[in-house]
Amino acid sequence: MADESSWKDSRFVRFSLVFGLLLWGYVIADRLIDAPPEIVPFAVGSDLSHVRLADGLGQIETLEGERTVLLFFHSECAVCVREAGTWRELMPRLEGHRVFAVTPEEISVGRAFADEHGWDVSVRTIQKMTMRTPWFVVTGPDGSVEFEVVGSETDALLSHLETKEVSHEEADTDVPDGSGVHAAPDDSGRGE
Q: The pTM is what?
């Protein structure tokens, strides 16, 4: 009987090991398949020139070429819903900038949310990407992040944009002593 008992014990041990390995493999595979995408790095200086924003109609925008204001949102984000009215009031103040409202959702869901809240802005999607929402990101002409802040900080965003506009205007001003970015041409005739 001792032999029969040890045979049953070893069979139970083998069954338990096989079952445990199969269960472990299933859990690992399930986590890999359903793993959330990486969070987009929004740190100042991050290169986002590789990011492509889709409009759902085949139009793809890159973040290179001109300064861009990105308003990241998700229709199921409670803070985004709370801030939607503030963002509607913000939109006219962003005129003169290239602006996109960006969602990780299907474009139709993002557009419906924007329409529901009266946003006058181009909606784009970056699917299969998790992002902090609501969030403001400003990229420079090279596609790198020059500013980022939580989406409830509209004053900080506007202050940044105004500061950058002033610094760009100053950089384009001719400065006779040559101390600016662009110095005035030498009109003295001395060729110095």
A: 0.65
